[in-house]
Amino acid sequence: MKTRTVLVVGGCLLMAYAVVGALTDTDLTPGGVLLFLAAVLVVHDVVWMAAVLAVGVALTRVPSRYRPTIRAAVITVAAVTVVGLPLALGFGRAADNTSVLPLPYGRNLVAVLLAVAATTLLVCVVRRRQAVRNPKDPPSGAR
Amino acid sequence: MVRHPDPPMTGRATVLRRLTRWCLAPLPAPPVTLRRGPLRPGVFRSRLRSTRLTGQLGVALGVAFAICFATGLLSHLIQHPPGWFWWPARPVGLYRFTQGLHVATGLASIPLLGAKLWSVYPRLFSWPPVRSIAHAAERASLGLLVAAALFLLVSGVLNISRWYAPMPFFFTAGHYWVAWLAVGGLLVHIGVHLPAVRAALVRPVGEPRQDGLNRRTLLGGVAAASGLVTLTTVGQTIRPLTGLAVLAPRHPDVGPQGLPVNRTAAGAGVRAAALDPAYRLRVTGEGRSVSLDLAALNRLPQYTAELPIACVEGWSATGTWTGVRLGDLVALVGADPRRSSAWVESLQVDGAYRACTVPPEHVGDPLTLVALRLGGEPLHLDHGYPARLIAPNRPGVLQTKWLSRITVAGTG
Fold first, then answer.
1. CB–CB of B355/B344 below 8 Å?
2. Which of A26, B82, B138, B252 has the most CB atoms lying inside 10 A of its own CB?
3. Do A86 and B190 touch (CB under 8 A)?
4. Is residue B268 part of a domain?
């Protein structure tokens, strides 16, 4: 109980330090930070999660033998896109600095996603062959 | 003799106990007719979610955030050193490692945070929404933690992509203070859920085989996503993986003289001043001062050092720099390099990084140079021509370019 009290009280003190620090930092507009905090929370909890749950429902229609593989692929595609999309959109490019975002990110992102798709397909084909060879094995995976 | 069942309490203890009771007192539940949509029972039916999965993702995410916070705080302290802080000049690539780790860990934790928030999403709609004042406070702090964690990862990704328009605040300051908010929220969260954290670290008892298999395959998927994100980006700082870094915002070989640039001469507004034949580097000590043109700098003993530019944005690249030792310039105005710090200023008129302090550990280090050449050629204008600072184990923003003035101060 003592450890938990220390953690909770210490955490509250650090949060208070963050608020006071942000309010007194002349480099910072606290309103902008607050707006961004609210925006990422709402976009994640409403828009992003709605999309994730829809994909999750679609995954339940995938035969259970392939489901873990497809699920891993979907998670990977989502993560790689979150990192790669801002680069592919290229708003950070600078006319006078060619060393900033120097690669063809749109093409590279598509190539990485295709590689993920190809690997997923390969694993699914192997799974299918295994299933044909050992028809008694119960299929893995769950909703 | 009869013992008193309750020992007499002091006034303060009574107030504390009353306050605790008030905070924990159950609040009336809202009318059941409001329990609609996702608030209804049984809406979220995935059998993949489990307390153990949430706990394990939480522990992994806690470790990732601890690494990011420690390395980020270190980078902040190096750039804004308080009086008690000390940062060595060796090992040469320590900052390159810590900041590379900061960005790589942040990127790798994106799928972790995504999976963790998915695993606890149904709890957002738990009924009743608020059970007591304490429960309401806990939920509010949890909301802040989630918002702060998302803020840190999203703003970090935007920063390395150099896309500042969606952020209505100064990135560095916002990222720094929200990191404190996240760590505070994380400590509260761990305090509230400590039994679950402990349970996540021990082998489960009585978990059905299929549930264990589901959990492990999901964790495997998250690990694969983290691994691929790392593999396609970390080559911006780890040399042997550069060929795989197809989604890295920088390529260590791309830039003028084969080295990336953060701020160009045109961007800093120093083109004319840097190319002016009347250029002089002024070194001022206590009571003595010298003014050196480029020819005079070239006549001083020249040294060559292999040193990295290690950017706060997580990329790094090594260059072969040649120039005058900063220590020699400090000695030129009669100061002891190992007991002096130097205030180094750029030709830049303004900007947060136009000047910096070089502490005695770096001034006295033989590898700290006022570089005039890169790879044997005179510096490219964007690399700081005519002269720039290059020192071991320092963030790129503190490797001041287009040097105009060095002010030496003794440290007693």
1. yes
2. B252
3. no
4. yes
